[in-house]
Amino acid sequence: MGSDVAPRLAEEDPVTSLLLGGREPDSMAEATATEDVGGEKGSRIEAADETAHQISHDPWYQVGFVLTTGINSAYVLGYSGSVMVPLGWVAGVVGLVLAAAISLYANTLVSHLHEIGGKRHIRYRDLAGHIYGRKMYALTWGLQYVNLFMINTGYIILAGQALKAIYVLYRDDDALKLPYCIAIAGLVCALFAFGIPHLSALRLWLGFSTFFSLVYIIIAFVLSLKDGVNQPPRGYNIPGPHTSKIFSTIGAVASLVFAYNTGMLPEIQATVKPPVIRNMDKALWFQFTVGVLPLYAVTFVGYWAYGSSTSTYLLNSVNGPVWVKTMANAAAFLQTVIALHIFASPMYEYLDTQYGRGKGNAFSFHNVSFRVLVRGGYLTVNTFVAALLPFLGDFMSLTGALSTFPLTFVLANHMYLKAKKNKLSATQKTWHWLNVVGFSCLAIAAAIAAIRLIVVDSRTYHLFADL
């Protein structure tokens, strides 16, 4: 864009103004209460205030740690192999940095629509339903369910891999196979879910999550650095034949956006104390500045140390004392249990509100037994799928393609267009439409690539593989 576009965008678009250093009003309600958001008369869905979970309860820094817990979960141990190996140094580094900037922008768009129409929209589907109508409400809910289901499945795969890695450090008899480890991981995740009634109740556990993240990130960083110094020169060529390289590259692009985005921003923003727009902005800036540094450190050093042979679970590549590697894998397992709960919370909130938890003590017999039955059933399905298809990198790519691209980039830009159509210049409308079309094309290409990867891996490893 020309040099005159940024000032115009800053002047006319409150989101761009904020990103360029401006100040957003404390509440969007004043600016948006009378806006026509484009839905047909009578077709819009007003946000439902009723929820079994806590709203407007958490300070911005707690929400910031929730977001940071997501991006620095044990998934970071896979980015050296799943992102850097297929992309190489230049595309990998530029891609990770650019994806962070684009993700910050897209998430800010969504966060600034939280109070559109003078009412808080505490669920992503509520926001989409208010802007588009009932059909989009249902489609958004479906996309979000797919996104969160696959993220949770990936977490259980990660937790199972961490347990299997610990076992292999001490025994070489192959008696404890990966599907068994995944089953154990699913059980532990369910037990944790029974005791944590809602997202705000994580409080102290977020501190543990941060500690566990630092443990495995620091250990992986130090051991990779040590190996990189001591090992002979590595090769960084992108592996595989030409056709495979193309599909692997497209899949890695989907993993880039998967790394930074939750697909549940309105649900997380619902927990923050007023002023919700300003506080959410603080949490997002925390996530995409301080929060991304550990991810960058372990991803780049891991790839530097092992090159094209980097494992999709970095702790399988490092060399070091057995007790240190045990500590790292144990920390990865425990942090994964906590992080999974964050991404399962929208489903829990829906089930608790619609069918289960009545008013009163969250730990009453009725409420606990409901969580055991319903959350246990949900995680059982997750665990079965994780054991059936334990291909972590492929799941990251497919999740990014099918749901992260549409929810975070396509829908965010189009919702902003609909909500602000009378206040945007032609240049701004063109910019948002370019985002809508471009990310839609990327989503289609990435979905094809991810499905191909899963089919290929399924032929190679068979179902319930012991990877």
Automatic annotation (TrEMBL):
TM region positions: 87-110, 145-170, 176-197, 204-225, 245-263, 284-306, 326-351, 372-389, 395-412, 433-455
One BP term from GO: amino acid transport
Protein name: Amino acid transporter transmembrane domain-containing protein
Domain Amino acid transporter transmembrane: from-to ranges: 60-451
Organism from which the protein derives: Asparagus officinalis (Garden asparagus)
Annotated GO CC locations: membrane
Phylogenetic placement of the source organism: Eukaryota, Viridiplantae, Streptophyta, Embryophyta, Tracheophyta
Pfam families recorded: Aa_trans
Keywords: Amino-acid transport, Membrane, Transmembrane, Transmembrane helix, Transport
Superkingdom as given in the UniProt entry: Eukaryota
Compartmental location: Membrane
Stretch list, region Disordered: 1-41
